[in-house]
Specification:
Elements (H helix, E strand, L loop, with lengths): L1 H20 L8 E2 L7 E7 L9 E6 L4 E6 L11 E4 L2 E11 L5 E9 L4 E7 L10 E2 L12 E8 L6 E7 L8 E9 L2 E10 L8 E7 L4 E6 L3 E6 L10 E3 L8 E8 L4 E7 L4 E6 L5 E5 L9 E4 L11 E6 L3 E6 L8
Antiparallel strand pairs: 1-24, 2-3, 3-4, 4-5, 6-7, 7-8, 8-9, 10-11, 11-12, 12-13, 14-15, 15-16, 16-17, 18-19, 19-20, 20-21, 22-23, 23-24
Length: 338
């Protein structure tokens, strides 16, 4: 009986401690309409003519999946939504891709896992630029090492070249990521493998990838190990710069977003099983704080510090929620600059 009492007291103590540690929820400004299957990763396109008409793209990860387009009220924009995709996983966006001598276009790129390829579309007219898709990991010999998951676009500030950095379901301990140079000529857009790099712990998988274009740095989540940091510029070599942050995560390290102000930058990373986000200083990689945005099991996230009209005057943070939707927060609510 005495042992039973001790066990009950211990269980109550643990429960109280768990409640005491729960962070207050920062309530979303907008929750989007739901997708059909399984949301995963967002990307924000800023409309250069009217920022209040910007678009949030989000993947719906299924064999009959889609890239959904949402307005800033969270409503689905059907004529901008790309359907009939084979398990789209992650999506990213870049501005000013040189399509020909006189034309630059904004583009989104996403992985299409079951077709072992990446896709490239112009924004906002949503025209395919990829002849149906660019194959990736074509030299893979082991099961699942040819299945793309994460993707980040990198536009070099030095050369203005556009690259896609792609991760996969599983892979070797070294050269887990492949980097593809996207080019355009009179015959269309082409993809060329230029680099293999990046270590992998082997503990789970690598999905979330984000690039700081100005600094030329790529970050990716080795999910149960650390946040890894490398140069995004191929000419700067493949040596790892840093592996950090593992002690601040409950289990999986997931989506990564980079928020940059004039004087300071932040790395916002999903602490998936804790249903929170960890924020790090972009320059020093020092941990700053943990926040609760109300999302469940967040995979991907994205951020902009640009004002998006009256709805999001301080910028926008978008995070995936495990109820087939995305949460939109005015960036000021995250109190990054306090």
């Amino acid at each position: 009986m005495e042992k039973l009492k001790v066990n009950i007291i211990f269980i109550c103590f643990v429960a109280l401690m768990a409640c005491a540690k729960k962070l207050p929820e920062i309530v979303a400004n907008v929750i989007t309409e739901t997708t059909l299957y399984d949301t995963d990763d967002p990307a924000i396109w800023i409309n250069p003519k009217d920022a209040s008409k910007s678009i949030v793209f989000g993947t719906d990860k299924n064999t009959e999946g889609a890239i959904y387009a949402f307005d800033l009220d969270g409503k689905i924009i059907e004529d901008k939504t790309i359907r009939n995709l084979k398990r789209p996983n992650n999506v990213d966006l870049e501005y000013g891709f040189q399509l020909n001598d006189s034309t630059k276009v904004d583009v989104i790129s996403f992985t299409e896992r079951e077709r072992q390829q990446i896709r490239l579309f112009s924004v906002p007219d949503m025209k395919p630029l990829d002849h149906g898709g660019f194959p990736v990991f074509t030299d893979a010999k082991e099961p699942e090492t040819n299945l793309p998951m994460g993707i980040a676009l990198y536009k070099s500030p030095e050369t203005h070249k556009l690259y896609a950095i792609v991760g996969r379901k599983t892979g070797p301990k070294k050269e887990y990521l492949y980097q593809y140079h996207l080019t355009s000529d009179s015959l269309g857009v082409h993809s060329k493998l230029v680099r293999k790099f990046g270590e992998f712990s082997g503990k789970k998988e690598i999905e979330a990838i984000a690039v700081d274009n100005e600094a030329g740095i790529v970050y990716y989540s080795d999910e149960m190990h650390c946040i890894r940091k490398y140069y995004a510029e191929p000419s700067k070599g493949d040596e790892e710069i840093y592996c950090f942050g593992s002690e601040y995560f409950k289990e999986d390290i997931e989506g990564i977003a980079i928020a940059k102000y004039q004087e300071k930058g932040f790395l916002i990373v999903s602490n998936q099983q804790a249903h929170t986000f960890n924020i790090f200083d972009l320059k020093t990689n020092a941990f700053i704080k943990e926040i609760n945005l109300g999302t469940i099991e967040t995979d991907g996230c994205d951020v902009t510090t640009t004002a998006l009209g009256d709805k999001f005057p301080n910028g926008l943070f978008v995070s995936m929620n495990d109820e087939k939707n995305f949460f939109f927060h005015d960036l000021e609510k995250l109190k990054l600059l306090e």
